[in-house]
Amino acid sequence: MKITAVEAVPFAIPYTKPLAFASGEVRTADHVLVRIHTDDGLTGTAEAPPRPYTYGETQESIVAVIGKVFAPQLLGLTALDREAVHAVLERTVGNPTAKAALDMALWDILGQAAGMPVSGLLGGYTDRMRVGHMVGFAPAAEMVAEAERIRDTYGITTFKVKVGRVPYAQDVAACRALREALGPGVELYIDGNRGWTASDAARVLAETADLGLLFAEELCPADDVLGRRRLVAGSPLPFIADESATRPAEVTRELLGGSATAISIKTARTGFTGSQRVLHLCEGLGTEVVMGNQIDGQIGTLCSVAFGAAHRSSSRYAGELSNFLDMADDLLAEPLTIESGTLHVREGAGLGIDIDPGKLARYRQDR
Ligand code: MUC
Ligand code: MG
């Protein structure tokens, strides 16, 4: 299982419906396909989604850091040397999705070598997750129409509503319209991507108190340290840290400092190894987790569900596993399907990522 080559292939697939949120917008999935090859003929696969507004990475930076920095350092190590691989990767700061994709590709190799599914190797708690769908910025009536379409087509009954617009009244109105249209049986929570001040966020929590929201996520920046603590202390809802707590040390800091009371785990930024560290830390601290979405394509979504389903605490709530529905196409030979609001882990050895060569040839950006 010695690593002989590492590929970072940029590809671009348009969205049929762009997703807009307080910190940015996606119109094209300009991701990077990461493949690690070994001397015994195995190939591990994952994808890295650049999110410059969250981590500073771009498609070009991911290709460059993998090709120029990480690949030369990994050649000769084996897929079993995961701690050594991480020690090497951590010599370079930042670049979370590039590192995460490498980690998940190595787990894919391990699963293939063992003839076992990665989800089973990680924990094997269940083989599926309930799916939550993210509703991006739009006029309230369009947000309602989208949620109804997703509910009616895929059986999804959990929605994360993107908020954080200024003035905030439009988001309060959208949440109210969603609750009225979807009824009390549907789970709704809000994610502000740091768009509001702590005091506006507190006003929103007061004005939506009757809507039965499940969580509030990143309503204001964690860097507004005291305001955020005051907001979280007074919040009637679990307050999820997403982009403010991406590494175990940040998770510890935000939770112990009172700036969050729940954590979003995204395999796209912490891979499987780092996500397990975050998960176990949260379990030790008695903190709930939600499987978040880095606006993943189908490859990233397969990774997320493999991890989420593997553990009891990461499969408790609906995972954010449906952003790929807004993409015009994908690279998988066999597309993912969401039925009755549920996504299954792919069976078979490894992660079950089978890339369609024709699609890769069509969408890759480097030829
Ligand atoms: C989310 O949960 O915030 C939007 C920006 C990002 O980094 O992730 C997405 C979804
Ligand atoms: Mg978020």
Automatic annotation (TrEMBL):
Pfam families: MR_MLE_C, MR_MLE_N. One of its GO terms (biological process) is peptide metabolic process. The keyword Transmembrane helix does not apply. PROSITE patterns: MR_MLE_1. Keywords: Isomerase, Magnesium, Metal-binding. InterPro entries: Enolase-like_C_sf (IPR036849), Enolase-like_N (IPR029017), Enolase_C-like (IPR029065), Mandel_Rmase/mucon_lact_enz_CS (IPR018110), Mandelate_racemase_C (IPR013342), Mandelate_racemase_N_dom (IPR013341), Muconate_cycloisomerase_anti (IPR034613). One of its GO terms (molecular function) is racemase and epimerase activity. This is Enolase.
